[in-house]
Design brief:
mainly beta; two-stranded antiparallel sheet; binds zinc ion
């Protein structure tokens, strides 16, 4: 399981083995797109403003 954290504020968003989701950070309200494969975590902030 990988921990996925918000790039902006480091809030823990989810733990998963595999996912491809769009999630809104409850702390900083940024929308984060998380692409999680077996051995690689990639998360990007959708709205950077
Ligand atoms: Zn955040």
């Amino acid at each position: 399981m990988e921990e996925v954290r918000c790039k902006n504020c480091n809030q823990l968003l989810l733990k998963a083995e595999y996912c491809f989701v769009e999630i809104k950070c409850p702390r900083c309200k940024k929308t984060i797109i998380v692409k999680l494969k077996k051995d690689r975590v990639s998360n990007t902030t959708k709205n950077s403003e």
